[in-house]
Design goal:
The chain is an alpha/beta fold and 163 residues long. Helix content is 45%, strand content 21%. The strands form two sheets. A four-stranded parallel sheet has the order 2-1-3-4, sandwiched between helices. A two-stranded antiparallel ribbon has the order 5-6. Strand 5 and strand 6 form a beta hairpin. Helix 1 crosses helix 5 and helix 2 runs parallel beside helix 3.
């Protein structure tokens, strides 16, 4: 097998130059002590990379299970270059976690595939509250900020790929 030198291969990838992008953040209210730091992290990352505040829309939903429906409506509206879904599903003593986490993830993936609009997955699915807080601005960083960077990179990539 012959490997081509990268100088001869055209590589297309997104970047983090977000000026001009329109971004929607859908944030669950359930487990708000985790989701609020995720949202702050996402908004900070968007601002640091050039998204103007007036080009960001935050929409609140009751919980993670409701994220896909609202993300779908926003993605299909034509008003946004990307959607960021933020929530936290923390395992408890019942199988509720498995249903909510799985349906949320599958629903958000379906929204992105069906709409052609990037949907960044900023939904924490953890076993403990400590794991969730560690990922929402604690020792493991802020997954809301990470989701914002993913949204920017995917939106800029799709712009480069064209219609």
């Amino acid at each position: 097998m012959q490997v081509l030198a990268t100088e001869t291969v055209r590589i297309i990838e997104g970047d983090l130059a977000a000026a001009g992008l329109r971004i929607a953040c859908v944030a669950a209210r359930f487990n708000d002590f985790v989701v609020e730091p995720l949202l702050r992290g996402a908004l900070d990352a968007l601002g640091r990379h050039g998204v103007a505040p007036e080009r960001i829309q935050v929409v609140r939903v009751p919980g993670a299970f409701e994220l896909p429906l609202v993300a779908r409506k926003l993605a299909l509206s034509g008003g946004y270059d990307a959607v960021i879904a933020l929530g936290a599903v923390i395992r408890g003593d019942t199988p509720h976690f498995d249903y909510v986490a799985g349906e949320c993830a599958a629903g958000l993936a379906r929204v992105a595939a069906d709409s052609g609009v990037p949907v960044a997955f900023g939904v924490l699915t953890t076993d403990t509250v400590e794991q969730a807080t560690d990922r929402a601005g604690g020792k493991d960083g802020n997954k809301g900020a990470d989701a914002a960077l993913t949204a920017i990179e995917m939106a800029t990539l799709l712009r480069k790929l064209g219609p």
